[in-house]
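Board notes (copied after class):
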Amino acid sequence: MFATIEKVVSDLKKGKLILVVDDEDRENEGDFVCAGSLVDKEKINFMLKQGRGLICAPIAKEIASRFNLELMTKPKDPFQTGFTVSVDAKEGTTTGISASDRVKTIKVLCDERKNADDLNKPGHLFPLLAKEGGVLQRAGHTEATIDLLKIAKMKQVGVICEVIKSNGEMARLVDLKKIARRHKLTLVTVADIIKYRLKKESFVEKVSEAKLPTEFGEFKVIAFKDKIQNGEYLALVKGNIKKAKEVLVRVHSGCITGDVFHSLRCDCRKQLESALKQISESKAGLVLYIPQHEGRGIGISNKIKAYKLQEKGLDTVEANKALGFSADLREYGIGAQVLKELGVKKIKLLTNNPKKIVALRGYGIEIVKQIPIIIKCNKYNKKYLETKRTKLGHLL
């Protein structure tokens, strides 16, 4: 049902409308989207009749700068939507609200010869300032629109409109699929745009490396930083991984309570120690350590809150959801880029988590074998491990 990014970009270049849906854990809404440079009054009318939401114009930072468009107010909504002051084209419009007037205003934003003197403020069109970094910085419809236009090499001015059902309720994914079929529109998710960018672009840079003697043997430790979130990644490398046909790899989520304080609530430290031992005994291998995966992505403070809820009877998944999070927020795209930067092509993956295999393969890492890490449970982590097996699909 979902289109490839290549198909979506092709439709945008042809002036067609597309549908973009964000994550169910975010707004879980869909927007009609088209390129501002190719919009016409028929598309605006379609959005008004079939979308029923607010028609806005996502713009890149350089467009906002050229027209002196500043944020209307500091965003206080949970999704940090970048509304600027509303605008109308100064010439060739009447009230500014008609479909043709809004098209003229959008065309002004697309015209490199125009500037702030060509707009009236406030007006009837609502520009939205996209975050630099796009969907990798903010997974919203605004950034998705600008990212798609950049991929298409088109002017970075879009037109979007939320899709509302005839009963006044927001259209969700099941509704959006029907709308896409009815009007023969391509449907794409923000998640697919994120994945596409992580596969096509590089966002990691090597910071430094040094020798690291450990009780499991000597490793080379290499520090990486991602350019989007400034997250830090550590690779503990054994042997010549570039020349090895298959590299033994453990992608380890940071766990301060387990790895540092030897908590018995989880099996993290035992898995890390087992991985280090196996890799030290191999010809070539590495541990990729990801600190920002703490608590399956919710962070150390929220993880402690989750522990408190588990003391009241909730399991690890229920506790995360009670705090407003998904069961697992971890993303592996940047981690996959670190592996590629290290020259790793084929890996034998030390993991009990089949979703990790799917995720890494989705970013182009070839996994030739999964090697489970068998850890004996204790009375403190027995329920935790059972939940990972029954609710998260871990092979335990």
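Comment from the instructor: The longest strand covers residues 119-129. The CA atoms of residues 88 and 123 lie 5 Å apart.
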